[in-house]
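Lab notebook, bench 4. Still working through the backlog of constructs that have no structural model yet. Next entry is a single chain of 388 residues. Request: give me the structure tokens for it.
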Amino acid sequence: MKIAIAGTGYVGLSNAVILSQHHEVVALDINAEKVALINDRVSPIVDPELSDYLANNHLDLRATTDPADAYADADVVVIATPTDYDTETNFFDTSSVEKVLTDVLAHAPEAVVVIKSTIPVGFTERLRGEHPGATVLFSPEFLREGRALYDNLHPSRIIVGDTGEHGRLVADLLLEGAVDKEVPVLLTGPTEAEAIKLFANTYLAMRVAYFNELDTYAATRGLDTRQIIEGVGLDPRIGAHYNNPSFGYGGYCLPKDTRQLLANYGDVPQTLITAIVDANTTRMDFIAADIAERHPRRVGIYRLIMKAGSDNFRASSIQGVMSRLQARGTEILIHEPALTEATFQGARVVRDLDQFTELSDVIIANRLDDAARSFGDKLYTRDLYGRD
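Model written out:
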């Protein structure tokens, strides 16, 4: 079976790898450098399992920048292109998904098209209405940045928004590529699958926001956050997981998915979803104010990345704190090895860690590592457990 993958980010590349263990896979991307790396069996993404599988496993996988090459004679096409949240329309920008579908229908009209990009509730049904001859379905991803392939090899669940033969085909392909075989498989309607994705991520955002607001309360009242969290977590219905305070939720998914779910509510009564979205702003406001109370002349930002083991800092919460401090007139220095430029969003990038430490009055770190622990009294973090 020939499978084409449109997009080679976390979702696209991890799916390309698991599917190419048993099928011919052609990955399409507009970035020629990423295509070259994949063809050289080098991961363009920081992900240990992706790097290992590309380098050491037999995979029937190649990459291209040519849509005709990718889609011609494809039996299945997986769309994994970005769908950033558009603040003007209050919806995901799905133009890349729609462009791919148009190209696929031109080159492989009989292909089963599987949308893996995150999309608004109701989007798949709209596409089906606009393209009545096409086979289009949605299958949500539940991946962690930096562990994308691991989470596809060991999926918590496989959900496909189609209850017919095409839904079963896609579920079987995903299960075939996984290491774990005793995986819950749920075939649903397309709109239900879209809702599952957004509600799952919004619940995770709610949990992050909850423990962050617990930490805000404890910090304001001079209480021991760790003791409170550990006591709360002893209730087995709550548990001692996903409870480490941070500067806020961020990354590829949670900020945009919560806002999209809120937009999808429309005139449906709710208060909680709005609170989850607003809570992240409130948390970053508190963190910036708490740092400002120390009256630093110069604040060092140690790593822009959202979480350990990732090279992504898109929509990271530490950037929200940084912009708030800049608005107060605080000078900002950044130490981020992933940056190649001399400045980032108006702040000076300092590559030498010793110089960065010496120049900074306060150094803030969303997540701790060995280097961050060496900053001593200059360090400001809310990370209690040294994990995400």
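Notes after review: The chain has a mean pLDDT of 94. The domain at 2-187 is CATH 3.40.50.720 (Rossmann fold). Flag for follow-up if needed.
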